[in-house]
Amino acid sequence: MEVNGIEQNELVKYAELDLSPEIMQALEKKRYEQATPVQAGVIPPMMEWKDVIAKAPTGSGKTFAFGIPMIQHLDAQNPVVQGLILAPTRELALQIGDELRTLASFKKGVRIVVVYGGQPIDRQINQLKRRPQIIVATPGRLMDHYKRRTIRLDHVETVVLDEADRMLDMGFVRDVTKILDLVPHRKNLALLSATISREVMDIAWVYQRDAVEVVVRADMENKPDIQQYRLDVSASQKVDAVLAILNSRPSRRVIAFCNTKNMVERLTKLLCMEDCPADCIHGDIRQSNREKVMSRFRKGKLRVLVATDVAARGIDVDDIDLVINYDVPDETEYYIHRIGRTGRAQKSGAAYTIVTNFADGVRLEEIEKRTRNVIRPVTLDKNGVLLSEET
Hints:
The chain is of the alpha/beta class and about 400 residues long. It folds into 2 domains: about 1-215, P-loop containing nucleotide triphosphate hydrolases (Rossmann fold, 3-Layer(aba) Sandwich), CATH 3.40.50.300; about 225-390, 3-Layer(aba) Sandwich (Rossmann fold), CATH 3.40.50.300. The two termini are about 40 Å apart. It is globular, with a radius of gyration of 21 Å. Helix 3 packs across helix 4. The longest helix is centred in the N-terminal third of the chain and has 14 residues, at about 90-105. It contains 15 helices and 17 strands.
């Protein structure tokens, strides 16, 4: 990890960060003792009300990095919005809300509301009447509430843009800048992202002052422990390949990625026909139904979640055992984000990519080269059993 260009490799425990007893109690309940590198880099400057721009891999603990100082600073007796987190997707916003509630579970009086599109606005207005101190929001829905005067931002002290690169890449630049202009008494702004794009740098240049720069690289120390495999089969064997992968590993939560909505629907139906508990999310599925699917997935009632890349943005479930690329992703970035769903929270994971033709193979080899990962070949025997190359 680098802080302002200076390498810092010391391990940091939460007990060394001068955190409140309430936050320490919440961390101890989760059995968390050691801060991740991004947390060690971001928490101290945010505790001092400094602006922060942090680049860190997916699944590296960014939510606690900004959530801990936000909860620590919060005046639970003051019923005004003091903390604002913007997220690019509904799923990520909901996940952030859940994690912040975990952190605040022993600090009485803290109220957190999540607002996002796709849910009736009247329900959110009723929640906002409870006078939350923290709001987690997607930019478009936040602007809707601001125009209706159901949210006031004039007392906000800390603003966080989580997954800032995706948020700006998804066309929220104008909403984000308007929101930042509406926070006159902001004390600090944190930008957290897996990549630092030109748009993120533009926001930093305009809205931050003397920001502390934290960079956590996906090196061997903090890179997720993900075993990656390649399985070459004919197109007619793809579903059999998925079933063989599922049978070969004792996995409770699996995400299977497809490149198109139609393929997501088709694979889900085929898996259900094979008595494999599966459901799907994609852009054409109503938000209320997507939330029901995600709830079942988090509770372990659904073994396989089939998804497109766009729909899966923001899914932040720590205990995903396995990722299957039913289709080889079109972009290297998609591959990184897909497999990054597993191997989180210092756990190991596995990712399988199914290859059915020459073009798929070339694309996966290019991904392997660009990511500097080792993707090991595996095969199916005549009985449909998964074998390693060495077997």
